[in-house]
Structures are given as C-alpha cells and as structure tokens.
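Comment on both lines for my students:
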Amino acid sequence: MIVLFTKTFDECFTIDGVEMIHMGSHTEVSTVVYVADEWVLFAGDLMFAETLPWADNPLLRNDAWIQAFKVILDIEIEAIF
C-alpha cells in the first residue's frame, strides 16, 4: 500500500519539536531535520567528511550548497548526522 503525503512545506515545518528545514542546497529539495531539544541536526547528504563531492558537476547548485552551510552554522547544534 502506498501512502501519499498530506503536508508539504516551502521553508520550514515543525511537528512535535522536530523541525524540517528546506535548504535548497545542491538539489532544490534538500532538507535537514533539526531536533532542538537534543541540539541534533540530521543533514543527510549535505555533509561529508574530508571531501567535496560533486564539486566538478556543472548540473549542481554549488553556491546554494555553500549557502546551506552558512544556515547550518547559525543553528545551535551539538551533533550533526
């Protein structure tokens, strides 16, 4: 059984203390999940250690990816996953 979504958001959506933040990073649908009570950010494929993936791919939005990092720096976090 396929269950279709019932809510969408453009910038931010919060439910039960969990915040979904649209980043519009390397893809237009990039989203991070922030749990403010725990100061934890789930960044998915926005974050990489010791590498810059896709940097040479002309189809990707590298400027938007850098902007997403600037937004992340303004969020109070103790851990990123």
User: Anything to note?
Assistant: The chain has one domain: 15-80.
